[in-house]
Amino acid sequence: MNPAVLIEKLQKNYGSIPAVKDVSFRVDRGEIFGLLGPNGAGKTTTIRCLCTLAKPDAGKVEVCGIDAIAQPKIARRRLGYVAQEVALDKVLTGRELLQLQAALYHLPNANAKARIEQLIQMLGLSEYADRQTGGYSGGLRKRLDLAAGLLHQPDLLVLDEPTVGLDIESRAAVWEFLRNLRAAGTTVLITSHYLEEVDALADRLAIIDKGTVIAEGTPSQLKDRVGGDRVTLRVREFTATEEAETVRDKLLTLPFVEEAIVNPAQGNSLNLVVAPQSNPLTKIEQTLQELSLPVFSMAQSRPSLDDVYLAATGRTLMDAELAAAGSRDLKKEKKQEMK
Protein backbone atom coordinates (compact mmCIF):
# COMPACT_ATOMS: atom_id res chain seq x y z
CA MET A 1 0.00 0.00 0.00
CA ASN A 2 1.25 3.48 -0.89
CA PRO A 3 2.08 5.73 2.08
CA ALA A 4 -0.28 8.57 2.91
CA VAL A 5 2.52 11.06 2.18
CA LEU A 6 5.77 10.64 0.28
CA ILE A 7 8.07 13.66 -0.09
CA GLU A 8 11.50 13.29 -1.65
CA LYS A 9 14.19 15.95 -2.09
CA LEU A 10 11.68 18.82 -1.94
CA GLN A 11 13.00 22.29 -2.77
CA LYS A 12 11.20 25.62 -2.78
CA ASN A 13 12.63 29.12 -3.18
CA TYR A 14 10.94 32.49 -2.86
CA GLY A 15 12.99 34.64 -5.17
CA SER A 16 16.58 34.21 -4.07
CA ILE A 17 15.57 32.99 -0.60
CA PRO A 18 15.52 29.18 -0.10
CA ALA A 19 12.58 28.24 2.11
CA VAL A 20 12.99 24.49 1.67
CA LYS A 21 16.40 23.14 0.63
CA ASP A 22 16.14 19.34 0.88
CA VAL A 23 13.17 17.76 2.65
CA SER A 24 12.36 14.04 2.45
CA PHE A 25 10.03 11.97 4.64
CA ARG A 26 7.12 9.56 4.43
CA VAL A 27 3.93 9.28 6.45
CA ASP A 28 2.40 5.83 6.80
CA ARG A 29 -1.36 5.42 6.71
CA GLY A 30 -3.18 5.53 10.02
CA GLU A 31 -0.50 7.35 12.01
CA ILE A 32 -0.01 10.81 13.48
CA PHE A 33 3.17 12.24 12.01
CA GLY A 34 4.78 15.37 13.42
CA LEU A 35 6.90 17.89 11.55
CA LEU A 36 8.82 19.68 14.31
CA GLY A 37 10.95 22.79 13.99
CA PRO A 38 11.19 26.48 14.89
CA ASN A 39 9.29 29.19 13.07
CA GLY A 40 10.98 29.85 9.74
CA ALA A 41 12.38 26.32 9.46
CA GLY A 42 10.35 25.51 6.33
CA LYS A 43 7.45 23.55 7.86
CA THR A 44 4.63 25.67 6.44
CA THR A 45 6.22 25.85 2.99
CA THR A 46 6.59 22.07 2.98
CA ILE A 47 2.94 21.43 3.73
CA ARG A 48 1.80 24.15 1.32
CA CYS A 49 3.62 22.19 -1.39
CA LEU A 50 2.03 18.99 -0.11
CA CYS A 51 -1.46 20.54 -0.17
CA THR A 52 -0.93 21.93 -3.72
CA LEU A 53 -1.05 25.55 -2.50
CA ALA A 54 2.53 26.15 -3.69
CA LYS A 55 4.43 24.56 -6.54
CA PRO A 56 7.86 23.20 -5.57
CA ASP A 57 10.94 24.03 -7.61
CA ALA A 58 12.17 20.44 -7.41
CA GLY A 59 11.35 17.14 -5.75
CA LYS A 60 8.58 14.58 -5.49
CA VAL A 61 5.27 14.95 -3.62
CA GLU A 62 2.71 12.16 -3.40
CA VAL A 63 -0.60 11.94 -1.50
CA CYS A 64 -1.90 8.38 -1.15
CA GLY A 65 0.06 7.38 -4.24
CA ILE A 66 -1.13 10.37 -6.30
CA ASP A 67 1.42 12.74 -7.81
CA ALA A 68 0.34 16.01 -6.16
CA ILE A 69 2.42 18.10 -8.58
CA ALA A 70 1.10 16.52 -11.79
CA GLN A 71 -2.45 15.84 -10.52
CA PRO A 72 -3.22 18.48 -7.88
CA LYS A 73 -7.02 18.33 -8.23
CA ILE A 74 -7.11 14.59 -7.58
CA ALA A 75 -4.70 14.92 -4.66
CA ARG A 76 -6.90 17.59 -3.03
CA ARG A 77 -9.81 15.15 -2.85
CA ARG A 78 -7.75 12.88 -0.60
CA LEU A 79 -6.64 15.50 1.93
CA GLY A 80 -8.01 18.10 4.28
CA TYR A 81 -5.98 21.16 5.23
CA VAL A 82 -6.34 23.30 8.35
CA ALA A 83 -4.13 26.39 8.20
CA GLN A 84 -2.43 28.03 11.17
CA GLU A 85 -4.53 31.18 10.87
CA VAL A 86 -8.27 30.56 11.23
CA ALA A 87 -10.21 32.58 8.64
CA LEU A 88 -13.96 32.62 9.31
CA ASP A 89 -16.75 34.86 8.05
CA LYS A 90 -17.84 36.50 11.30
CA VAL A 91 -21.41 37.05 10.04
CA LEU A 92 -22.10 33.38 9.31
CA THR A 93 -23.06 30.90 11.98
CA GLY A 94 -20.89 27.83 12.41
CA ARG A 95 -23.49 25.67 10.68
CA GLU A 96 -23.82 28.11 7.76
CA LEU A 97 -20.06 28.16 7.30
CA LEU A 98 -19.96 24.36 7.16
CA GLN A 99 -22.84 24.38 4.66
CA LEU A 100 -20.88 26.78 2.47
CA GLN A 101 -17.78 24.58 2.75
CA ALA A 102 -19.84 21.51 1.81
CA ALA A 103 -21.11 23.30 -1.29
CA LEU A 104 -17.54 24.12 -2.29
CA TYR A 105 -16.74 20.40 -1.99
CA HIS A 106 -19.83 19.62 -4.14
CA LEU A 107 -21.22 17.31 -1.47
CA PRO A 108 -24.83 16.17 -2.09
CA ASN A 109 -27.23 18.05 0.18
CA ALA A 110 -28.44 14.97 2.07
CA ASN A 111 -24.91 13.74 2.70
CA ALA A 112 -23.71 17.22 3.63
CA LYS A 113 -26.45 17.72 6.23
CA ALA A 114 -25.70 14.40 7.93
CA ARG A 115 -21.94 14.96 7.83
CA ILE A 116 -22.21 18.48 9.25
CA GLU A 117 -24.34 17.25 12.14
CA GLN A 118 -21.91 14.41 12.78
CA LEU A 119 -18.93 16.78 12.97
CA ILE A 120 -20.80 19.26 15.16
CA GLN A 121 -21.43 16.43 17.63
CA MET A 122 -17.87 15.05 17.39
CA LEU A 123 -16.26 18.41 18.07
CA GLY A 124 -18.63 19.53 20.82
CA LEU A 125 -20.11 22.41 18.81
CA SER A 126 -23.83 21.70 19.34
CA GLU A 127 -24.31 24.63 21.72
CA TYR A 128 -22.57 27.07 19.38
CA ALA A 129 -23.32 25.85 15.84
CA ASP A 130 -26.16 28.34 15.26
CA ARG A 131 -24.33 31.34 16.68
CA GLN A 132 -22.35 33.78 14.56
CA THR A 133 -18.67 32.83 14.48
CA GLY A 134 -17.65 36.41 15.31
CA GLY A 135 -18.41 35.60 18.94
CA TYR A 136 -16.44 32.35 19.04
CA SER A 137 -13.44 31.89 21.31
CA GLY A 138 -10.10 30.81 19.86
CA GLY A 139 -10.75 27.20 20.83
CA LEU A 140 -14.18 27.16 19.19
CA ARG A 141 -12.81 28.76 16.03
CA LYS A 142 -10.14 26.05 15.80
CA ARG A 143 -12.70 23.29 16.32
CA LEU A 144 -14.91 24.73 13.57
CA ASP A 145 -11.90 24.95 11.28
CA LEU A 146 -11.17 21.27 11.98
CA ALA A 147 -14.75 20.41 11.07
CA ALA A 148 -14.41 22.26 7.76
CA GLY A 149 -11.22 20.35 6.95
CA LEU A 150 -12.90 17.01 7.65
CA LEU A 151 -16.20 17.56 5.82
CA HIS A 152 -15.27 15.52 2.76
CA GLN A 153 -13.88 12.66 4.89
CA PRO A 154 -10.27 12.91 3.68
CA ASP A 155 -7.78 10.07 4.03
CA LEU A 156 -5.19 12.60 5.22
CA LEU A 157 -5.68 15.59 7.52
CA VAL A 158 -2.90 18.20 7.46
CA LEU A 159 -2.75 20.74 10.29
CA ASP A 160 -0.35 23.67 10.47
CA GLU A 161 0.37 24.55 14.13
CA PRO A 162 -3.05 23.26 15.31
CA THR A 163 -2.91 24.61 18.88
CA VAL A 164 -1.07 27.93 18.56
CA GLY A 165 -2.74 30.52 20.76
CA LEU A 166 -5.07 28.04 22.48
CA ASP A 167 -5.42 27.71 26.24
CA ILE A 168 -4.47 24.47 27.99
CA GLU A 169 -8.06 23.13 28.07
CA SER A 170 -8.66 23.79 24.37
CA ARG A 171 -5.28 22.31 23.46
CA ALA A 172 -6.06 19.12 25.39
CA ALA A 173 -9.43 18.86 23.59
CA VAL A 174 -7.76 19.13 20.19
CA TRP A 175 -5.17 16.49 21.18
CA GLU A 176 -7.88 14.06 22.26
CA PHE A 177 -9.84 14.64 19.06
CA LEU A 178 -6.78 13.95 16.91
CA ARG A 179 -6.09 10.70 18.79
CA ASN A 180 -9.69 9.60 18.19
CA LEU A 181 -9.38 10.54 14.54
CA ARG A 182 -6.29 8.35 14.18
CA ALA A 183 -8.08 5.48 15.94
CA ALA A 184 -10.84 5.78 13.33
CA GLY A 185 -8.28 5.35 10.53
CA THR A 186 -7.51 8.90 9.41
CA THR A 187 -3.86 9.78 8.86
CA VAL A 188 -2.84 13.04 10.53
CA LEU A 189 0.14 15.25 9.72
CA ILE A 190 0.80 18.16 12.08
CA THR A 191 3.46 20.83 12.07
CA SER A 192 4.43 22.26 15.43
CA HIS A 193 7.16 24.05 17.33
CA TYR A 194 5.77 22.74 20.63
CA LEU A 195 8.01 19.91 21.82
CA GLU A 196 5.47 18.49 24.25
CA GLU A 197 2.77 18.44 21.57
CA VAL A 198 4.77 16.35 19.12
CA ASP A 199 6.10 14.12 21.90
CA ALA A 200 2.57 13.46 23.17
CA LEU A 201 0.84 12.94 19.82
CA ALA A 202 3.23 11.74 17.14
CA ASP A 203 3.81 8.08 16.30
CA ARG A 204 6.76 9.29 14.23
CA LEU A 205 8.24 12.67 13.43
CA ALA A 206 10.77 14.55 11.35
CA ILE A 207 12.73 17.48 12.75
CA ILE A 208 13.30 20.24 10.20
CA ASP A 209 15.83 23.05 10.53
CA LYS A 210 16.72 25.71 7.94
CA GLY A 211 14.81 23.91 5.21
CA THR A 212 16.37 20.48 5.78
CA VAL A 213 15.26 17.36 7.67
CA ILE A 214 17.90 16.68 10.32
CA ALA A 215 16.31 13.69 12.09
CA GLU A 216 13.41 11.26 11.59
CA GLY A 217 11.93 8.40 13.63
CA THR A 218 9.69 7.71 16.61
CA PRO A 219 10.14 9.99 19.64
CA SER A 220 11.70 7.10 21.57
CA GLN A 221 14.10 6.20 18.76
CA LEU A 222 15.33 9.76 18.41
CA LYS A 223 15.87 10.13 22.16
CA ASP A 224 17.67 6.79 22.37
CA ARG A 225 20.03 7.82 19.57
CA VAL A 226 21.14 10.80 21.62
CA GLY A 227 21.92 8.42 24.49
CA GLY A 228 22.67 9.04 28.15
CA ASP A 229 21.16 11.48 30.61
CA ARG A 230 21.35 15.22 30.18
CA VAL A 231 22.98 17.62 32.60
CA THR A 232 22.44 21.36 32.29
CA LEU A 233 25.14 23.31 34.12
CA ARG A 234 25.54 27.02 34.76
CA VAL A 235 28.85 27.93 36.38
CA ARG A 236 27.64 31.50 36.86
CA GLU A 237 24.43 33.25 35.91
CA PHE A 238 26.33 34.68 32.92
CA THR A 239 29.58 32.82 32.34
CA ALA A 240 32.42 34.28 30.25
CA THR A 241 33.01 32.36 27.03
CA GLU A 242 36.62 31.53 27.86
CA GLU A 243 35.68 30.22 31.32
CA ALA A 244 32.82 28.12 29.91
CA GLU A 245 35.14 26.59 27.31
CA THR A 246 37.72 25.79 30.02
CA VAL A 247 35.05 24.01 32.05
CA ARG A 248 33.83 22.15 28.97
CA ASP A 249 37.33 20.90 28.16
CA LYS A 250 37.89 19.78 31.74
CA LEU A 251 34.56 17.97 31.99
CA LEU A 252 35.22 16.12 28.74
CA THR A 253 38.16 14.42 30.50
CA LEU A 254 35.72 12.71 32.88
CA PRO A 255 35.07 9.15 31.67
CA PHE A 256 31.28 9.39 32.00
CA VAL A 257 30.89 12.71 30.09
CA GLU A 258 30.19 11.79 26.48
CA GLU A 259 29.50 15.25 25.11
CA ALA A 260 29.61 18.87 26.27
CA ILE A 261 28.25 21.87 24.39
CA VAL A 262 28.57 25.52 25.39
CA ASN A 263 25.26 27.28 24.77
CA PRO A 264 25.95 31.02 24.25
CA ALA A 265 22.26 31.83 23.85
CA GLN A 266 21.72 30.87 27.48
CA GLY A 267 24.53 32.70 29.23
CA ASN A 268 27.18 30.17 28.13
CA SER A 269 25.54 27.36 30.05
CA LEU A 270 26.86 23.86 29.40
CA ASN A 271 24.71 21.03 28.07
CA LEU A 272 26.23 17.64 28.88
CA VAL A 273 25.46 14.09 27.81
CA VAL A 274 26.48 11.67 30.56
CA ALA A 275 26.63 7.87 30.51
CA PRO A 276 24.79 5.93 33.25
CA GLN A 277 26.74 6.81 36.36
CA SER A 278 26.08 7.04 40.08
CA ASN A 279 26.05 10.59 41.40
CA PRO A 280 27.25 12.38 38.22
CA LEU A 281 26.25 15.77 39.64
CA THR A 282 28.46 15.24 42.70
CA LYS A 283 31.46 14.33 40.57
CA ILE A 284 30.90 17.31 38.25
CA GLU A 285 30.68 19.63 41.26
CA GLN A 286 33.94 18.15 42.66
CA THR A 287 35.65 18.83 39.33
CA LEU A 288 34.54 22.48 39.44
CA GLN A 289 35.80 22.79 43.00
CA GLU A 290 39.22 21.64 41.77
CA LEU A 291 39.09 24.58 39.36
CA SER A 292 37.97 26.89 42.20
CA LEU A 293 34.75 27.59 40.32
CA PRO A 294 31.21 27.88 41.71
CA VAL A 295 28.02 26.16 40.54
CA PHE A 296 25.18 28.57 39.89
CA SER A 297 22.74 25.80 38.91
CA MET A 298 22.84 22.18 37.78
CA ALA A 299 20.12 19.67 36.85
CA GLN A 300 19.94 16.15 35.47
CA SER A 301 17.16 14.76 33.24
CA ARG A 302 16.34 12.09 30.70
CA PRO A 303 16.76 12.99 26.99
CA SER A 304 14.01 15.05 25.36
CA LEU A 305 13.23 16.05 21.79
CA ASP A 306 14.95 19.34 22.55
CA ASP A 307 18.11 17.34 23.30
CA VAL A 308 17.74 15.68 19.90
CA TYR A 309 17.51 19.11 18.30
CA LEU A 310 20.44 20.38 20.35
CA ALA A 311 22.62 17.41 19.38
CA ALA A 312 21.86 17.93 15.69
CA THR A 313 22.21 21.73 15.54
CA GLY A 314 24.19 22.87 18.58
CA ARG A 315 21.29 24.98 19.86
CA THR A 316 17.94 24.36 21.56
CA LEU A 317 14.62 24.84 19.83
CA MET A 318 13.95 27.88 22.03
CA ASP A 319 17.27 29.39 20.95
CA ALA A 320 16.25 28.89 17.32
CA GLU A 321 12.88 30.53 17.98
CA LEU A 322 14.54 33.55 19.60
CA ALA A 323 17.04 33.85 16.75
CA ALA A 324 14.24 33.72 14.18
CA ALA A 325 12.25 36.35 16.09
CA GLY A 326 15.31 38.60 16.27
CA SER A 327 15.90 38.22 12.54
CA ARG A 328 12.29 39.18 11.79
CA ASP A 329 12.52 42.25 14.04
CA LEU A 330 15.76 43.31 12.33
CA LYS A 331 14.16 43.04 8.89
CA LYS A 332 11.22 45.16 10.05
CA GLU A 333 13.62 47.84 11.36
CA LYS A 334 15.51 47.91 8.06
CA LYS A 335 12.27 48.30 6.10
CA GLN A 336 11.20 51.17 8.33
CA GLU A 337 14.58 52.85 7.87
CA MET A 338 14.27 52.56 4.09
CA LYS A 339 10.91 54.31 4.23
What's a quick, concise take on this entry?
The protein is of the alpha/beta class and 339 residues long. It has 12 helices and 14 strands. Helix 6 links the parallel strand 7 and strand 8.
List keywords for this structure.
339 residues; Alpha-Beta Plaits; 40% helix; six-stranded mixed sheet; 12 helices; Rossmann fold; four-stranded antiparallel sheet; 2 domains
**Rg, Å, rounded:** 23 Å
Mean pLDDT, all residues: 90
Taking the sheet with the most strands, its summary is: 6 strands, mixed
Helix content: 40-55%
The general outline is: elongated
What is the helix/strand order? EEEHEEHEHHHEHEHEEHEHEEHEHH
Question: Describe it for me?
Answer:
This protein has 339 residues and is α/β, with parallel strands linked by helices. Helices cover 40% and strands 25% of the residues. It has 2 domains: 5-223, Rossmann fold, CATH 3.40.50.300; 228-302, Alpha-Beta Plaits (2-Layer Sandwich). The chain has helices at residues 43-50, 72-77, 94-104, 109-122, 138-150, 168-183, 195-201, 219-226, 241-251, 280-290, 305-313, 317-338; strands at 5-14, 17-27, 32-36, 58-63, 66-67, 79-82, 156-160, 187-192, 204-209, 212-217, 229-234, 257-263, 269-274, 297-301. A 6-stranded mixed sheet has the order 6-7-8-3-9-10, sandwiched between helices. The chain has a 4-stranded antiparallel sheet with strand order 2-1-4-5. Strand 12 (257-263) and strand 13 form a beta hairpin. The mean pLDDT is 90.
